[in-house]
Amino acid sequence: MLCSRVAAPLVLLAGAVLSIAACCAQQATADPVHVDKATLRSYAGRYRSQDEPDIILSFFEDGDHLYVESARSPRFDLTAQSSDTFTAGGGSVHYRFEKDAAGKVTGVRRIADEQESFDPRIDGRPEPNHFRPYDREEVMIPMRDGVRLHAIILRPKDTQAPLPFLMQRTPYGVDWAASDSINAENTELAQSGYIFVMEDIRGRYGSQGTFVMMRPIVDHHDPHAVDESTDTYDTVAWLLKHVSRNNGRVGVLGISYPGFLAAEAGIDPHPAVKAISPQAPMTDVWIGDDFFHNGAFRQSYGYDYVLGMESSKQATFGWLNEDAYDYFLHAGSFAQAGKISGSSDLPTWKAFLDHPSYDEFWRSRAVQYHLNSVTVPTLEVGGWWDQEDMWGPQEQYAVLEPHNQPGDPMHRVFLALGPWRHGGWSQTTRHLGALDFGAPVGDEYRAQIEAPFFAYYLKDQPGFDVKNTAAFQTGSDRWMRYDQWPPKNVKERDLYLQADGSLGFSMPADTKAFVAYTSDPADPVPYRRRPIEATYAPAGSGWYTWLVQDQRFLNGRKDVASWTTAPLDHDLTITGDVVADLTASTSGTDSDWVVKLIDEYPDDPSLGKMSGYELMIVDEIFRGRYREGYAHPEAIPANQPEEYTFSLHGADHVFLKGHRVMVQVQSSWFPLYDRNPQTFVPNIMEAQPADFKPAGQRIYAGSHIELPVAPQP
């Protein structure tokens, strides 16, 4: 639920992420050294980031000091430590300029977080960032029940023309919002010019009231009832009345939890709300988003996130100081982990324990049941490898799309999907983990889709040309445009799991044959490489990119079953929803089933670090007790084949010629998902040590993956 647009603003300087506060902090090092102007002038120029070639750092000489900025970072003064070495961020980042034998500056070596990179010099002509100046105002906005919400209003200094509002509501604090930070975080939108409104929701940071995680949606016929939708309505009404020189239009956007809040702005909206963009929105945290997936509890994430959100009025993340795998294995169950923490009375932790199945508590918080029409133009945004809320935008689009009114631009829903982790579209990068997409896809999205969307609906400016869906197709690494998602021309083909470990499009002759493995809760399959840091560990965490980690780290485990095709003799493109249809049995009375569709790269040294790489394309878990319905868990008959059908979610991917398609099945994904004891108990979160037992698992031939195969070009 946390990403760069909802936390304190972050600034990327040659791959080093610095908070604005840190960059402005006093140096913790020795007194600065005087460097003569001629030397400083020799360092001035543009330098290309070695890690991210689309980031250009500009160093300027100004009198007797040096400063640095980029297109998406404000000016930071540098402190000289020697004639060629300077620091920023309170000494946390070092820049050392290097010269060749002739004394010509060739580049700057950046050292941060014990990592080092060399950024070559392009030329001696530094380029300013063209940030637009904004005035800042702090206000308290009254709601219909008398509670007042804290907000920051930013207005461009350089125009008196009426402008639309662009609002983000958040539980993560808004004190960071200022002229530099809005330009750094929302560069394209800030340069276009809006009246930005950043608001703390109820019970968070500077706002009054009580915070409720994913506050339930109330009956809006009751004039006294409040939820996030009514708070948005009241905020808009106040802004229109009290903020001068506005054009009467409001847009709302947000990522993750603020994405959920943006979606709520479209439920019985204020008439002035003319465009919303729920980006990676929390939609249903039991079925497919943050806290559960198909009934399987996301233990380590639910632990870390709730502890960080509900321990105080301000978000504080990064609690565990040991390998989360060991911590949760030793705790035994989530209930016991809560007791060990000393914080077991947190409201949402109690909700996990009291509502392990899908009941009215979770349903009342789910957004999809309230999306009965496209009330305002809506741009849904998601990432293929979003580790937190990948399901939400695809589900919201799927629910809204049947209500699309193509002939009426004011009642349209659009979808943008790309190769991003959670919130990754807000960054300037062409990478995700080991993957290189060849271009800064997030920059392309913001400049070509997001900014034109809001400019069209809030300012009547032309340029928004998405008809329905824009998807970045991985493998081919190019943007595709579709009239709907999934496209009409795809054909479902079943890829069968054969008893000999192969994959093929032909139905096996013997569907009673099987592949077997033993799942032992005492030795669960880790979901990513160990050690597993806290979700938002301050020193860094593999959480952000675990969905693209090379799955070869599981090689040698006997509890991960694999099937592969022969090397493909032509490209295979899948575009749409991928579905797993397993026929499986367990010797226990409960079981989890994890299915992963993987692109296996060829063993080819020319591919560098991608040689032999096993890249998950789509994946999902299903808790077997819910095979007959999410509200009523039932024991699984031991040693009896049962069918499990569940979505692995959407993809737009090309398995290139020479690659192999791989499918893996396992019965644990720990500690992200809590261990299934494999003995049916009423509440897995309260399972006792004696309940956890090894089980023999069988995956029967005839099990298959439903692939949405696109025609070859």
From TrEMBL:
- The domain of life for this entry's organism is Bacteria
Q: Does the keyword Hydrolase apply?
A: yes
**Which keywords describe this protein according to UniProt?**
Hydrolase, Signal
Domain called Xaa-Pro dipeptidyl-peptidase C-terminal: residue spans: 451-706
Q: Which GO terms describe its molecular function?
A: dipeptidyl-peptidase activity
User: Which SUPFAM superfamilies does the record match to this protein?
Assistant: alpha/beta-Hydrolases (SSF53474), Galactose-binding domain-like (SSF49785)
Signal sequence segment = 1-30
Q: Which InterPro entries match?
A: AB_hydrolase_fold, CocE/Ser_esterase, Galactose-bd-like_sf, Xaa-Pro-like_dom, Xaa-Pro_dipept_C
Gene3D superfamilies in the record, alphabetically? Answer: alpha-amino acid ester hydrolase ( Helical cap domain), alpha/beta hydrolase, Galactose-binding domain-like
UniProt cross-references to PROSITE patterns, sorted A to Z: PROKAR_LIPOPROTEIN (PS51257)
Q: What is this protein called?
A: CocE/NonD family hydrolase
Native species: Paracidobacterium acidisoli
